[in-house]
Fold:
Amino acid sequence: MELDCTTGGVSAIVNDWYSLVKSRLTPKRFKHVEGVVYTAKLLAKQFGVDENQAMIAAWLHDIYRELDVETLTRLALEVDVTVPTTAPVTWHGPIAAKRLPLDFAVFDQEIQDAIASHTLGHPQMSAVAQVLYVADAIEPGRSYAGVDELRLAAQKSLPYAVACVADSAILFLVKQHLPICWETVEMRNQLWLGIDETN
Structure:
């Protein structure tokens, strides 16, 4: 079935995104993206978020994930994106977000912001961005320790799910003695301050 994904100047069908993304990623990465699209659609419907925006963001969130550091650096310079000197694995989101209008005619700011923040999170994430952040962490192909608990958290509320995913990411980085970006910590702190766990 073809689904019209018209939003923010974008007019495409799911099959078009499918073919485009599949042509740019390895089979393993593409399977992950399919899982994120599936999960993002479910979460968007569950929490009253725009499904088209969530699905387009999900299709394109890892479009530059498999590029090498040299290529990512060049692309970042072309669109004037400042990326941290550490953790190149986090660069693909912000770079893709800036290049969406140029490379894919995606002008929707919420989609751009969602893709930019899908790895690290951000204190000012929209509902679309929160859906993508959670979907990326809990899609059916994920099998790391604790993912089932995160899937249960996603049944409670969207902010609660985002906070739990952030906690999981922070704990992983702590155990690996890796730096934790301020965006993740500030987002996590703000969310937990506003969440009533008694409900």
User: Anything to note?
Assistant: The chain is about 60% helix and 0% strand.
